Amino acid sequence: MNFQKFPFVALIFLVLVGVVSCKDGAEKETNQQVISDVKEEAPEISVVKDKPENVIAPEGMVWISGKVYEQGAVVEDTIAMQHEKPAHTVAVDGFFMDITEVTNAQFAKFVAATNYITKAERALDWEELKKQVPPGTPKPHDSILQPGSLIFKKTKERVQNFYDYSQWWVWKIGANWQHPYGPKSSIKGKENHPVVHVTYEDAMAYCKWANRQLPTEAQWELASRGSLERKSYNWGGTDTGLHEKANTWDGRFPDSNSGVDGFEGSAPVRSYPANSYGLFDMAGNVWELTRDWYHVEYYQQLKDQGIVKNPQGPDLAFNPNNTRVQEKVLRGGSFLCHKSYCASYRNSARMANTLDSSAEHIGFRTIVTLEMLKQ
Fold first, then answer.
1. What confidence tens digit (pLDDT) does each residue in 307-349 have?
2. Residue 151, H or E segment
3. Buried b / exposed e across 37-52, counting CB within 10 Å, b at 16+?
4. What is the pLDDT of residues 127-173, one digit of tens each?
5. Cβ count within 10 A of residue 128
6. Which residue pairs, CB below 8 angstroms and at least 24 apart, start in 77-81?
7. Phi/psi at 149 (nearest 5 deg)?
8. How many Å is the maximal CA-CA distance in the chain?
9. What percentage of the chain's residues is helix, strand, coil (to nearest 5)?
């Protein structure tokens, strides 16, 4: 892709840097911080652990038991990024969570019922876009300033600079949830794949229609860890047999993928073993949106406060490496994650994503709290 010939593509990468980077600015810091050993016994704090007997799980959901647990990177995780630290104690009430990521079929029902148009399908507003790029950035030609989304493209040869995301990401006009690779593609036969090319706004619109919510980071990580304590992965302490456990990149990223796990792109939900809570694809397949703002100092703030119950994330986003935009937190990694690049199929892995960013490896799942059922 010639970024000088197509200046809007370069502009998009400036705006959407949070989408495509597993190695964002917070993660570039050296991995030298030592995480204190977790105390075996946490002070008494009341959380809702068990599902009330008179409450029936919403369709397609499972109960996640409340718990006081250590959120963030475990001591043994030698590849944890700086923004996964420090580990800190949180208390989270029980809730219901989707067993799978929201699928194309489920999202299609929402669109049919509401006539909703996703962000990637709407005309682009230059007045809004230019607020997110350096002053003086020229307006792209109308032929380029068209709705679309980011799609992945394998490189032809080995990559030396993993911070140049433009080597494997392409802004594709006409790419959206119904046409994941551009206007001539479709989701026919992929009804059971996770919906992608959706933004935070799109996911929230779905939640409003379905009377659900996006999970907080604390809820998401509790659900991912399941019954295992202080493990890097939702199946245990090592990545042995990863290709059998999660849909990730198999081979040399980003030029060679053996497909040994059965898929090069997204996989149908339930294609890999569930974790101990019965949740599928909490590791790999597609990144999952959460409600929390991305703030590089938030984990330290939680640590300083002691045990926080049901943390809702910081009040504001803060990323010193991307100050022009507001970002939310993504969790779980995707089919593009590889140990040499980001290994974000770990329980504590996280990534920043701008509010209006969409890509072929970003989706979501929802939750329902007991309070929501009472409304």
1. 999 999 999 999 998 888 899 999 999 999 998 888 999 999 9
2. strand 148-152
3. ebeeeeeeeebeeebe
4. 777 776 778 788 877 767 889 999 998 888 887 776 676 777 899 99
5. 9
6. 77/232, 77/346, 77/348, 78/31, 79/31, 79/339, 79/343, 79/346, 80/31, 80/232, 80/346, 80/348, 80/349, 81/23, 81/26, 81/27, 81/31, 81/349, 81/350
7. -160, 175
8. 63
9. 20, 20, 60
CA–CA separation, 101 and 332 (whole Å): 11
Distance CA 358, CA 150 (A): 7
Instruction: Quote the CA–CA distance of 167 and 63 in Å, as a whole number.
Output: 41
> Tokens 């379905």 label which residue?
210
Residue 83, classed as helix, strand or coil, is: helix
The two three-digit tokens of residue 313, written as one number? 């994330």
In tens, the pLDDT along 224-257 reads 999 998 999 999 999 999 999 999 999 888 888 8
Q: Alpha-carbon torsion 152, 157, 162, 167, what sign?
A: negative
Half-sphere exposure of 235 (CA within 13 A, CB side): 18
List C-alpha distances in Å: 45 to 66, 69, 93, 139, 221. 11, 11, 11, 55, 19
Q: Give the bridge partners for 152, in sequence order.
A: 169
Which runs of E-coded beta strand occur in 208-364? 251-252, 256-257, 287-293, 308-309, 327-331, 350-354, 362-363
**Cα separation, 239 vs 209, whole angstroms:** 38
Tokens of 331: 């969790």
Distance CA 347, CA 232 (A): 6
Omega of the bond leading into 254 within 30 degrees of 0 (cis):
yes
Tens digit of each residue's pLDDT (9 = 90 or more) over 24-72: 444 433 333 333 333 344 457 899 999 999 999 999 999 999 999 999 9
Distance CA 249, CA 339 (A): 9
Radius of gyration of the chain (CA): 20
